[in-house]
Amino acid sequence: QVQLVESGGGLVQAGGSLRLSCAASGSIAAVNTMAWYRQAPGKQRELVAAIFRGGTTNYADSVKGRFTISKDSAKKTVYLQMNSLKPEDTAVYYCNANYGPNTDNSWGQGTQVTVSS
How many angstroms separate the CA atoms of 91 and 32, rounded? Predict the structure, then answer.
């Protein structure tokens, strides 16, 4: 069992920056992959960025070059640094952890990011 709590969302003007944090607890050693997803009202949840156990990363084309996913193992926290924000980045952002031999998934409660034009 892995529990996730997101923080760092808020209101920012276009071109600005935010850093989201996801604090993990529970069976941390069993985590295979951590990722950030986002969901706008009336739209499907989409993958934004992922970081794997070996440290490699993957990004959606829409955020490539603007967002950076990273982790601090000592703090058991994963981050999403978001630069050059656009209004279309407005969404609820969710932290996700894939873990265990059965590749179970845990989700955080979500944090709202609003980018004004």
Answer: 25
- One pLDDT digit (tens) per residue for the chain, 117 residues: 899 999 999 999 999 999 999 999 998 888 899 999 999 999 999 999 999 988 999 999 999 999 999 999 889 999 999 999 999 999 999 999 999 888 899 999 999 999 999
Q: Is 51 helix (H, G, I), strand (E, B) or coil?
A: strand
**What's the N-to-C CA distance of the chain in angstroms?**
40
Q: Which residue shows structure tokens 């703090």?
A: 75
What whole-number distance in Å separates Cα of residue 106 and Cα of residue 117? Answer: 33
Neighbour count for residue 60 (Cβ, 10 Å): 15
- Tokens 């000592």 map to which residue? 74
What are the counts of helices (DSSP H) followed by strands (DSSP E) for the chain?
Answer: 0, 11
Question: Virtual CA dihedral for 82, 115, 88, 80, nearest 10 degrees?
Answer: 20
